[in-house]
Specification:
Blueprint lengths: L12 H7 L4 H4 L5 H12 L17 H4 L3 H9 L17 E2 L6 H12 L25 H4 L4 E4 L3 E3 L6 E8 L6 E10 L7 E12 L4 E7 L3 E2 L5 E2 L4 E5 L3 E9 L13 E4 L1 E7 L4 H5 L2 E9 L10 E2 L4 E9 L4 E9 L4 E10 L4 E8 L10 E3 L6 E2 L4 E9 L14 E2 L10 E8 L2 H23 L1
Parallel strand pairs: 10-14
Antiparallel strand pairs: 1-20, 2-13, 3-12, 4-11, 5-9, 5-10, 5-13, 6-7, 6-8, 6-11, 14-24, 15-23, 16-22, 17-20, 17-21, 17-24, 18-19, 18-22
Helix pairs in contact: 3-6, 5-6
């Protein structure tokens, strides 16, 4: 997938063109697995669809892919695969770790299947990417091993029954404050089938009282989430003398395609953290970034959420800041009836509303932190309002809905619903806000001048 494309060994178009010559060229103009489609599948699908991967079938060679070609065509044409349901043409499109296929790649796969899914020239073999092993850390290829790995306390999960929560503490062992570069929460082995979400947060020791106090949310893992990258010029803090509070929600038997319906013994969730160098704060003088759950209204977000049987509902949440900020990522959260989400910005001084992100085919089985390219991440002046919208479908048309006859209320169980979004925010001052605005204007002017040439 494109989240790790920077590390892939890709056969370039120029190399293929050089390889095609003479009488063979006409035969090789057709769209085939070896000349076109294999590379698309290797770069975007094999990371999950391989031996030991989370995909239900393997796509590591033509023999494995060919029987599934019609289904691949359907899923790709409908933008259901790769599973990254972020709308095209609405709001910001420049994202870090974007799994979506380009329209050209989609058209190529569709045309290949329509032509009978041919293998193509035997002497051209699509390059296989350098992928992490299924149990490796997702950022390991680019960033190396995590600087710190913390594990939750093991717990056995039965094959069936009601939702379970596992809440406890683990020390970090950090004696000096750090700035976080990237994070990944990873259920170990079979645990990924039953871990609904895992929310590690930080508590810091107050040396005067001897008590730990809440400091910040670290990250939020939910089914399918790849990980979280922090912009290079900001600091997500890991204080000294801290501990992790684990809030792990598990659903016995599992949810979605990875559900196994079996007991999971010694269920463990791991947290991998990559730190910046120790002198990062002194050299960069970074602004602080934090992650929060922004709810549909002040107070507990679920107490007014009701989805009627065979019906629909929508929620809206609003939040403003008393200082300028930059929005770095957007991760909407809901359960089995939620099917869409959007993020907008309302500017009270002008009455203008700006669309930022929309996910019209959201699914609880694939959560993503949509990380904006720092050069285009939303920049909010003081008083601008974040508008968070989420939609719910409790009808039989919703493929994730276990029972459309039920009234669905707000709550923490898998069968309940929730309405909030995890949003990473860089907190600026007026000087920093104006500096970023000036840098963007300058970049835009350079771009316009370059186009004039």
């Amino acid at each position: 997938m494109k989240a790790i494309r920077s590390t892939l060994a890709v056969v370039s178009g120029a190399s293929l063109a050089f390889a095609l010559s003479g009488a063979q060229a006409q035969d090789r103009d057709e769209i085939s697995y070896n000349t076109h489609v294999g590379q698309i599948i290797n770069e975007n699908c094999v990371v999950c669809h391989r031996e030991g991967g989370i995909g239900p079938m393997q796509f590591e060679n033509y023999e494995q892919v060919r029987p599934w070609a019609p289904l691949i065509q359907l899923k790709v044409a409908n933008r259901e695969m790769p599973p990254y349901a972020y709308d095209h043409g609405i709001g910001i499109q420049d994202l870090e770790g974007d799994w979506r296929l380009s329209q050209e790649e989609i058209d190529t796969v569709v045309a290949w299947v329509n032509q009978g899914s041919p293998l193509g020239p035997a002497d051209i073999v699509p390059a296989m990417p350098d992928l992490p092993e299924p149990d490796d850390w997702n950022f390991e290829t680019d960033l190396g091993e995590p600087s710190l790995i913390l594990a939750s306390t093991p717990i056995d999960i039965p094959a069936g029954g009601n939702d379970l929560w596992h809440k406890h503490f683990t020390p970090t062992g950090i004696t000096e404050g750090k700035c976080i570069r990237a994070m990944q929460v990873k259920p170990r082995g079979d645990a990924r089938a039953v871990v609904h979400h895992a929310n590690p947060s930080i508590q810091v020791l107050d040396e005067e009282t001897g008590e730990y106090e809440d400091f910040s949310q670290l990250t939020e893992y939910a089914m399918g989430k790849w990980g979280e990258l922090i912009p290079n010029e900001v600091c997500r803090e890991m204080p000294a003398n801290s501990r992790i509070f684990w809030d792990i929600h598990m659903y016995p038997g599992g949810v979605g395609a990875s559900a196994q319906g079996q007991a999971v013994l010694n269920n463990v969730v791991e947290l991998g953290i990559w730190f910046h160098e120790d002198d990062f704060q002194e050299e960069q003088e970074p602004y602080t970034q934090d992650l929060r759950a922004y709810v549909m209204r002040d107070g507990y977000e679920n107490d007014m959420l009701i989805v009627p049987p065979h019906g629909y509902t929508m929620t809206q949440g609003f939040h403003s800041f008393d200082h300028p900020v930059r929005i770095d990522s957007f991760q909407p959260h809901g359960h089995l009836r939620m099917n869409a989400a959007a993020l907008e910005i309302f500017y009270p001084e002008t009455g203008r509303t700006e669309q930022i992100s929309q996910i019209s085919n959201w699914s609880a089985t694939w959560h993503h932190s949509h990380i904006y390219d720092p050069e285009v991440a939303p920049l909010l002046p003081t008083g601008a309002v974040l508008v968070i919208k989420q939609w719910y479908d409790n009808t039989a048309d919703n493929p994730n809905n276990p029972d459309p006859d039920q009234w669905v209320y707000g709550g923490s169980r898998t069968g309940d619903e929730m309405s909030h979004a995890w949003i990473a925010v860089t907190h600026l001052d007026d000087e920093g806000y104006e500096q970023i605005l000036a840098e963007r204007r300058e970049a835009e002017e350079r771009s316009v001048a370059g186009n004039d040439d």
